[in-house]
Design brief:
With 425 residues, the protein is α+β, with helices and mostly antiparallel strands. The protein has 9 helices and 22 strands. The model has no long low-confidence stretch (mean pLDDT 93).
């Protein structure tokens, strides 16, 4: 049996943060990082947008302000991308405040999808140079806490400490591991929303503030704004029962690429299920599958002009006249989002869009597109036994899949925090 001082499952920013910090502080430790994907995964691959201001990305029930700021400074040492300048922020903040809306001032970096891939190649080469073992295309299947052994599709691996950072895509694996290791958790939170796409001149704030963070009264927020060489993509998910659905997302290349003249961003509403306490994961899967049913196996797209009139969008009228740009995610079904999204969630998002149009006039132009669904799974809420994200003896749970982060910088910070716990033990 292969034996390591620490085994890390997941090569996203959480897993990488743990690996680098452990190696920095304890160079002689035998570390294995494995991932079921044949390439490094996680948020670094997807647009590579980084926020360096609390509380963006940091769930406040897990991260006190002082703790988050301490680890953000350490993250900055590893991810030293240049900050993007912001302008005219006070003007937009004043407009927002009059409507009961908050606009956060956030220090941001953006490498783009192409820049993120370059960063990944650099980080993976550095892991190899340091002698950290990396196994891609190897799937973690089971955990045996009594033997301190993790079982993959290739072998059994003995560990001194185990860090699980499987990301949102490893949601089910993480739940199974927690159940086997007696870790209490709740799975009751999910973010549900739409991705908005429009012309840059109808959302001009992006010229002053790359990824504006608006927080609306209905528990709705803007998320992951992309401009310049921007485009919308779909991501495939498979339910526990084998049904597939797609969630949309946004990307942008670095500014070295030609601009598309379009901008996209998500409007997400956080839903916390309480009485009866139910699974946010299962709700997300049901809504995703329902959208596929109504979209013929594809996400749904609808023009704001059609939505305002209470009618579905149609393929033959989707472009032309006021509908004056082609969707960057063409493989969607022109339809009616209101048939697929729960009414309470849709009403909150629509009210937030109207408030946003008052702050940044133009975003609700009739040609603006709403894509559905955009679903973010941050639902695992483990019970930690100490401040280092330790959930059981020799077990640490980190990253977006474990509910300890929402984004690249907070995920990397959670990895460093878990590594500190191992070093202190």
């Amino acid at each position: 049996m292969d034996t390591y001082d620490c085994v890390i499952v997941g090569t996203g920013p959480a897993g990488l943060g743990a690996a680098f910090h452990l190696n920095d502080r304890k160079p002689g430790a035998r570390i294995l990082v494995l991932d079921k994907s044949k390439v490094s995964t996680g948020g670094l691959r997807n647009d590579c947008k980084m926020n360096f201001t609390f509380p963006v990305g940091f769930p406040e029930e897990t991260w006190p302000r002082d703790t988050a700021q301490h680890y953000l400074a350490l993250v900055r040492e590893y991810l030293a991308a240049p900050f993007i300048a912001t302008n005219n922020l006070e003007m937009y903040q004043k407009r927002a405040e009059r409507l009961g809306v908050r606009l956060l001032s956030v220090r941001q970096c953006h490498l783009g999808t192409d820049g993120g891939l370059q960063l990944i190649r650099s980080l993976m080469s550095e892991l190899e140079r340091r002698g950290i073992h990396v196994s891609l295309g190897e799937t973690a299947v089971d955990v045996d806490p009594e033997r301190r052994c993790i079982v993959s599709d290739r072998r059994e691996i003995s560990y001194g400490d185990l860090i699980l950072a499987p990301g949102r895509g490893g949601f089910r694996f993480l739940q199974g591991a927690m159940a086997r290791m007696g870790v209490e958790y709740v799975d009751n939170v999910v973010d549900i929303g739409v991705r908005v796409e429009t012309r840059e001149e109808r959302y001009p704030i992006v010229k002053d503030y790359y990824d504006p963070k608006f927080y609306f009264p209905d528990g709705v927020r803007t998320f992951c704004t992309n401009s310049g060489p921007a485009y919308v993509v779909k991501e495939r998910y498979v339910t526990e029962h084998g049904s597939a659905y797609y969630s949309v997302n946004g990307h942008a290349y670095s500014r070295a690429h030609d601009r598309s003249g379009l901008v996209n961003f998500a409007l997400l509403k956080s839903v916390a299920l309480t009485e009866p306490l139910a699974s946010g994961q299962e709700l997300a899967e049901m809504l995703g599958c329902q959208a596929m049913l109504l979209g013929g196996g594809r996400p749904i797209m609808q023009r704001v002009g059609d939505f305002r009139l209470g009618k579905r969008s149609k393929r033959d009228t989707f472009c032309g006249d006021l509908f004056d740009f082609e969707p960057t995610l063409a493989g969607c079904t022109a339809g009616d989002i209101s048939l697929a999204m729960p009414g309470k969630i849709l009403r909150g998002i629509w009210r937030s869009m109207k408030l946003l149009d008052t702050i940044v006039p133009g975003v609700m132009h009739p040609g603006t597109i709403m894509y559905y669904p955009e679903i973010k799974l941050y639902a695992n809420r483990p019970r930690f036994v100490d401040k280092y994200l330790r959930a059981a003896e020799h077990l640490y749970l980190i990253g977006d899949g474990a509910g300890t982060s929402r984004g690249i910088t907070a995920a990397w910070a959670s990895g460093i925090r878990a590594a500190d716990g191992i070093l202190m033990s």
